[in-house]
Each structure stands twice: as structure tokens, then as C-alpha cells.
Amino acid sequence: MTRILIADDEPRIAAFLTKGLTAAGYTTTQVSDGVKALDYATSGEFDLLILDIGMPRMDGLTVLKNLRDMRSTIPVIILTAADSLESTVAALEGGADDYMTKPFRFEELLSRIKLRLRGAQAVASAPTLVCGDLSLDVNLRTAEIGGHVIDLSAREFVMARTFMENAGKVLSREQLLSRVWGYHFEGSSNVVDVYVRYLRHKLGQERIQTVRGVGYRLVCLPGPSTTAPDDPSGASDVAEGHSI
């Protein structure tokens, strides 16, 4: 039975979530402060955490930071009334798998829960992802190229993992936004392009190819990668003035 931890200090919201998730076939446990949320989430007894930001004793972002610092891989969906861009960015950069604001539609939350649980099950079945000389340990959240450890931020790691899980396939900007940032991005931000550029700088320019008008594709290189100082074709420099 899949167990979901609900960390929210609003009794009405917690009761609503418990009723809906129980009807959907999940087993739930409620906690109303951050200290208990961290304690329960690190027990190994839960498959997913629904986490509010504004909680007593320890706020949700601190809970999240502690979880990721402890290398916990439990999927975390932030469910909060904090709808500012700063809160969203802080949560996603801090290692949250998804972000929803209150009020919310239960059907949408349920869909996101199922998506994150499927991703967690895939990680459990393949804790180390390998693509040529690049490897990712999804449990330890570490990356290596040819045996050398590569320092990736939390969001860079999630994007690298998404590429690794779809090696050789073309991923559109919209697919990357949905899978890496966990929400439907509105506006003309080039955040995907920027993070692709970050990964190219750390993993090698030629490792992530641009497919014009479609998206990006990870290629598996057999040997050590070197970052090319110039790209005469301009194909890999999307973040610097080019667009998909």
C-alpha cells in the first residue's frame, strides 16, 4: 500500500486531503508541524510527502532543505498558499518535485501525485543511470564523467536525470519544464535554455544537442567529454541569443 505523508497545519486542508487520498486507495498520515514532518519523512515508511511551507516549529522550505541535505529521495509536492515567484523558485531549486498553490483542484493534485510516484518507482528500479561515460546515482544524487565527480545543483541534477532517462530522445522545452520544474510555465522565460547551457558547461557542449525547432537531445559519448570553446555551427549555443 502506498503511504503518503501530509504535512499541513490547517486541519480543514489536512482532513480534505486525507479523505480524498484514502478514497483513491492511498494510506495517509497527518502531521501539523515541520519538526514532525522531517522526522516522519526520513523514517523510510512513506512514499511521498505533501508539504506546506508555512508551518510551526520548522517551515516547509527548511524541512525540504534538511531532507535533501540528508540525501532523502522521497518525492515532495509543495502545497501552499504562498504563490510568489520567489517561493516557487526557492522550493523547486531546493529540491521539491512539484509545486501547487492553494486553492487547488484535487484531481490535478492526484494526477501529479501519480506522476511523481511513477518517477520514484522508476528510480528505485534503476538507482544508477548510465549514458556512455556519464553516470548518475539517483539515490546519492551524484554525477560522474569518466570517474570524475561533477558538481551539479539540485535543479541541474533533475534536468540531467530527465535527459538520462530519455537518452537519445528529443525533449521539447515544454516537456522539460513539466518534468524538471513540475508545473506549466507561463511566459517567455528561457529558463530551460539557461539550464541547458549550465549542463553543457559542466558536462560538455557536444553531449546535449539542439534539434532545431523541436528541442534538445542527450547523446551518449564513449569517452571523456571536452567542452568546446567555440561552436561554429551555433547549434549548441541556444542560451546565447538562439531559440528553439
Can you give keywords for this protein?
244 residues, alpha/beta, 5-stranded parallel sheet, 12 strands, 20% strand, elongated, disordered C terminus
Walk me through what this model shows:
The structure is a single chain. The protein is of the alpha/beta class. It has helices spanning 11-23, 34-41, 60-69, 85-93, 106-125, 154-165, 173-181, 191-203; strands spanning 3-7, 27-31, 48-51, 76-80, 98-101, 128-131, 134-137, 142-145, 148-150, 170-171, 208-211, 215-218. The strands form 3 sheets. The protein has a 5-stranded parallel β-sheet with strand order 2-1-3-4-5, sandwiched between helices. The longest helix has 20 residues, at 106-125. The protein is elongated and about 55 Å long. The N and C termini lie far apart (43 Å). Mean pLDDT is 83; it is low at 224-244.
Order of helices and strands: EHEHEHEHEHEEEEHEHHEE
Portion in strands: 15-25%
Q: Average pLDDT value?
A: 83
Multimeric state of these chains?
Answer: single chain
Roughly how many Å is the radius of gyration?
19 Å
Class based on secondary structure composition and strand pairing: alpha/beta
Helix content: 25-40%
> How far is it from the N-terminal to the C-terminal residue, by CA?
43 Å
The total count of strands amounts to 12
> Helical stretch count?
8
Regions with pLDDT < 50 over 5+ consecutive residues?
A: 224-244
User: Taking strands numbered 1, 2, ... along the chain, how are they ordered across the largest sheet?
Assistant: 2-1-3-4-5
Largest β sheet strand count, sense and barrel closure:
5 strands, parallel
Tertiary shape:
elongated
